[in-house]
Amino acid sequence: MLPRLSPLLRTSTFPATMARVMPRAAAVPLSHTPNAVAFVRLPSARLGFVANVNRFGFVSQSLKPSLSDGQGLSPRRGRVWASQREYRKVRRRAGKRKEKELELNVSICIEEDLPDDPEVLSIAEMLRLNVPMAMKLAFDGLKDSAYKTRDTAINDVGGFESVELSVLLCNDEFIRKLNKEWRDEDHATDVLSMSEHVPELKLPILMLGDIVISVETAARQAEERGHTLLDEIRILMVHGLLHLLGFDHELSEEAEAEMEKEEELLLKSLGWKGKGLIQSAYDAENSAYSHKENTDDRKKEGSLRFYKPKFNYIFCDMDGTLLNSKSQVTPANARALKEAMSRGVKVVIATGKARPAVIESLKMVDLAGKDGIVSEFSPGVFLQGLIVYGRQGREIFRRNLDPDVCREVYLYSWENKVPLVAFTKDRCLTLFDHPLVDSVHTIYHESKAEVIPSVESLLAAAEIQKVIFMDTAEGVSTTLRPYWSEALRDRATVVQAVPDMLEIVPHGTSKGGGVKILLDHLGITAKEIMAIGDGENDIEMLELAMLGIALSNGSEKTKAVANAIGVSNDEDGVADAIYRYAF
Fold first, then answer.
1. What HAMAP family does its record include (predicted)?
2. Given Cys at both, which of 22, 76, 101, 212 links 192, Cβ 3.0 to 4.6 Å?
């Protein structure tokens, strides 16, 4: 059985998985839908209890096997140890015991990695009442049962002093691991039933077993079927309970019909909404909806409420990362960021852009402002780390380009008619009009460049943080980059974020350096952050983060240092990284 934990205890953890060591059991999935029930009937393995003290000093129970029927345990592949996972107990519910009345002991547990979701907690409390009600009705139905296909190993429950049953609520990741460990099937199911009844032992207690329900899958099915999450979990619980009482729809068409009939009868008698799981599976098969089985580690959109964040912060680049090739934030990326923020994750922009350009880009998808990820009052790293804003959006660092370097750059632009844009905090300056200069505003959302048609006037206009040359990708790689790498040496640094632009920034500065400054200011450690980028200017940031993800459209140098390679910025790469790695 699942561990008996203190009611609604949120401050301690108890070492246990499905609280048993077991040989591998046969398992048969429902064939109508990929995430249908799997019923596992265990071989006879009697379980004893061993007390231990967990790290908070609370006494809990874990299980140790002792075989009563001579069966040998299989090698490690066939075992599931009680220390692999931890649970939180909602409450142990005992039905009111009258003289000679059967005592129902029901344990409702929440898997430790399932976050404190108010709806799930409320459902767990409801199950304290609902499960005993369903058990009593189901037991009453066994007395005069005329079903031909039901396994009658459990028939007259009146011969027992009490009945024990555990219900565990978990997410897809946990139930998927159970399926992989016990059934050799690497995907999530909506419910697993595990029988623990051993008729030969003649015990006074009927240990029915465990029902494991993925609330994540249940939530999706509830939405598809037009009822509430509570309705769906009740349906899954009834289905799992009937399996423990000997019904098995996989035996034959007759067995399926009998189990479907009993499902419908129980739900109707209890006054609960929804069809039985078997009928719902047929309806799903015959509808236009087609569920795509998820066989990788990517969480589904809308599912993050069922997972705890692995990181407190996500540092994200803009061009080539959050922005696609059209310099737009896709709806999928925007939804993923909002969902991550709703789970308490803070998103920080680290970019070569100026802050106004980032605000303008994210305003289009409702991610700018007080409740967004960027505003004039939020922290961030801008202009390749040359300006860093901290708490309340106050400037905590600024580094300017050497005026002598600026003079050389301006003269080169003027004499060779190569367009440039000089960045001074929130303003953009240039020497002459050019379509490529205009694109910095129209495509990349930077401030419209002010034309100052004189090198000396431009030098006197403002302190400059960085300068960008614009040309074709070929012109940048074959002419501009080799020339300025040689000309500047250790006086300034050349950086590329996109192929058709070359940036000149102060020597010894970088986006990664700006990220370090901000982490120190906020009191954040590198272990708390996940970083996403694509360009060479992101390398230091990705190396700094606990998990650095380079998108597939990124440079080879960037991908070489990353912990993981994500899909491209035109394939919602940021959303994919969040759903795959952040939770």
1. Endoribonucl_YbeY
2. 212
The values of phi and psi at residue 421, to 5°, are -130, 130
Nearest of 286, 291, 175, 197 to residue 244 by alpha carbon: 197
On average, the pLDDT of the chain sits at 82
How confident is the model at residue 159, as a pLDDT?
85
Of residues 494 and 17, more confidently modeled: 494
Burial of 115 (0-12, 13-18, 19+ CB in 10 A): middle
Q: What token pair was written down for 142?
A: 């066994």
Cα angle 402, 405, 407; round to 5: 110
* Bridge partners, 420 (sequence order): 469
Phi then psi dihedrals of residue 44, to 5 deg: -75, 110
> Can you tell me the distance from the alpha carbon of 37 to that of 47, in angstroms, rounded to the nearest whole number?
25
Q: Quick one: pLDDT at residue 278?
A: 82
pLDDT at position 17 is 31
Work out the pLDDT band at 422, boundaries 50, 70, 90: very high
Q: Enter the tokens of residue 202.
A: 């003649």
Look-up of token digits 């000396």 = 456
Burial of 553 (0-12, 13-18, 19+ CB in 10 A): buried
Q: What CA–CA distances, in Å, run from 346 to 313, 339, 380, 528? A: 5, 11, 11, 10
Residue 150 CB neighbours (<10 A): 21
- Tell me the helix, strand and coil percentages in the chain, rounded to 5: 40, 20, 40
Q: What per-residue confidence (pLDDT) applies to 285?
A: 61
pLDDT of 547 reads 98
The amino acid at residue 343 is R
Average pLDDT on 449-465 reads 94
User: Which residue(s) pair with 469 in the sheet?
Assistant: 420, 502
Structure tokens at 422: 């000089």
Residue bearing the bigger pLDDT, 141 or 216: 216
Distance CA 151, CA 355 (A): 68
Question: Residue 11 pLDDT > 70, yes or no?
Answer: no
Q: Are 428 and 446 in contact (CB under 8 A)?
A: yes
Angle between helices 253-270 and 118-143 (to 10 degrees): 110
Which residue's entry shows tokens 């910095």? 440
Residue linked to tokens 């990220």: 515
Helix (H, G, I), strand (E, B) or coil at 1: coil
Residue 18 has pLDDT above 80, yes or no: no
Task: Determine the Cα–Cα distance for residues 53 and 37; give it in Å rounded to an integer.
Answer: 35
* Model confidence at 471: pLDDT above 50: yes
> How many of the other CB atoms lie within 10 Å of CB of 224?
15
Q: Given the structure tokens 């029902």, which residue do they identify?
A: 211
Which H helix or E strand runs over 237?
Answer: helix 229-244
Please report which helix (H) or strand (E) contains residue 195, including its range: strand 191-195
Residue whose C-alpha is closest to residue 49's, from 66, 61, 67? 61
Per-residue DSSP letters for 418-474? --EEEEETTEEEESS--HHHHHHHHTT-PPPPEE---HHHHHHH---SEEEEE--HH
Tokens encoding 108: 């409702």
3-state class of 316 per DSSP? Answer: strand
- Tokens 């009490």 sit at which residue? 162
Residue 563 CA: distances (Å) to CA of 71, 566, 579, 583: 45, 10, 16, 16
3-class DSSP state of 23: coil
